[in-house]
Amino acid sequence: MNVLDELKKYQDDEYKKFTSALKVNNLLGVRNPILKNIAKEMVKNNDYVSFLNEKHTYHEENMIHMYILSFIKDKELVYNELDKFVPNLDNWAVCDSLLNIKLIDKNRDYFYSLVNKYKNSDKEFEIRFSIIMLLSHYVVSEYVDDVFKVIEEVKNDFYYTKMGIAWLLCELMIKFRDKCMEYIKISKLDDFTFNKAIQKMNESFRISDDDKIYLKSLKR
């Protein structure tokens, strides 16, 4: 399959305008369900190996790359391809497609070293990769204490990393309310990240009104 030719069949100028507002570069304007279907067909037909080794030009090619990894069942291949691909991340949308890689949920110990590898990077989306890995696959009882440690260890001044941590803390409040409350009281997070986390918690439908009132009182 010539992926670029296939993508050009589905270009949508209106969708391109919408996605451009999200600050994603090199867009063709193809909707995600179409990208996912292309990736699924490539895996089904075993027609993806050369694509994974190509240098991509367009955002949609990067999305297909990540969707392909979500359909592959070989954990070693997925690990190695993720590790190769992370340094190419340049926007939040591709990074956040980690949410789709369910294989990681079944092999958390195996993939966790990728979190440690990139959490102290000096590149914005490499750090966000570690944060979204935690958010997507490690907010579970056996890893929750490690997640809080990583949050406290990450030091950066990047907007999208700070927003990722805020989102992660909101998810921790939903699933591990008592532990998150304890953490918030001693957190050394910068004010921006801390307040964004409180904001996201107050926007969530899964956090009680009483907790929201208390959380608002903690804003710095």
Keywords:
single chain, 220 residues, mainly alpha, Serine Threonine Protein Phosphatase 5, Tetratricopeptide repeat, 2 domains, 14 helices, 0% strand
Helix-strand layout with pairing:
Elements: H1 3-8, H2 13-20, H3 32-44, H4 49-52, H5 59-71, H6 75-85, H7 92-96, H8 108-118, H9 124-137, H10 144-153, H11 159-175, H12 177-186, H13 191-203, H14 209-217
Task: Tell me what the structure shows.
- With 220 residues, the protein is an all-alpha fold.
- It is built from 14 helices and no strands.
- Helix content is 65%, strand content 0%.
- The radius of gyration is 18 Å and the shape is globular.
- Helix 8 packs antiparallel against helix 9.
- The protein has 2 domains: 101 residues; 109 residues, Serine Threonine Protein Phosphatase 5, Tetratricopeptide repeat (Alpha Horseshoe).
Task: Summarize the structure in short.
The protein contains 14 helices and no strands. With 220 residues, it is mostly helical.
Count of runs of 4 or more consecutive helical residues: 14
CATH topology-level fold name of the largest domain: Serine Threonine Protein Phosphatase 5, Tetratricopeptide repeat
How far is it from the N-terminal to the C-terminal residue, by CA? 53 Å
Largest sheet: none
Helix content: 55-70%
For the CA atoms, what is the radius of gyration? 18 Å
Strand content: under 5%
Average residue pLDDT: 95
